[in-house]
Amino acid sequence: MLNISYQLYCSRNFPPIGATLKMLSDAGFTQVEGYNGLFNDLEGLKAGLAETGLQMTSSHVGHQLLADDPAGMLQIIKDLGVKKVFAPHIAPDQRPTDAAGWAAFGQRLAEIGKPVQDAGLVWGWHNHDFELTKLASGEFPLDLMMGASDDLMMELDLGWVTRAGEDPVAWINKYSGRIAAAHIKDVAAAGECTDEDGWADVGHGTMDWPAIHTALQAAGCDHYVVEHDNPKDHQRFATRSLAAIQNF
């Protein structure tokens, strides 16, 4: 069974959250992925999920937030019913600059995530493009991070893999068995969707989804999270993307 979810960050510019959740439920979604910015109105979020029947099966949580308050963040995660937790980003001024630094960061991530794993939940990293830019030593930061601990899983963002100039299928194959979820994100053709930062609705861009879907299935990934970093119309994006994935 393919689990299709929606990253709520896509709709951050279309408040309130209750209306977004109803839109997604009406569109046919049954699952959503959260992010820690939504935790500022936890009761509103819970009410919206309860009213629509949507399940928050995964969420992004900043690794430093988890490190600073593991018990508090874990309680929120459990209360929301989240099963998979992904650290989504590291600020440019905090990023390591060499291989040893990225390996150490990967080890730190694994340690930060131990309370999550001890609770029986999945813990992993969500990539952008900077982890797929080779270092002077010729290594990829993402490889160094993932190589630091076998316990660290991955939410592979296929749009950012492509933006980095890499082949999504090759990276899926490389980390077969460790991709707990995938961000299904499409890249517009050159010069198109410039008012949406060059991203496209899933199935309406340049990504080779038949090949990607086949590779994800072979890699054991059954959790697809649709994402668009800056849609002008989140309902259009949600409905067209869901329809495209259902036709994979």
From TrEMBL:
Keywords: Isomerase. GO terms for molecular function: isomerase activity. Pfam families: AP_endonuc_2. Residues 23-232 form the Xylose isomerase-like TIM barrel domain. Gene3D superfamilies: Divalent-metal-dependent TIM barrel enzymes. Coiled coil: none annotated. InterPro entries: IolE/XylAMocC-like (IPR050312), Xyl_isomerase-like_sf (IPR036237), Xyl_isomerase-like_TIM-brl (IPR013022). This is Sugar phosphate isomerase/epimerase.
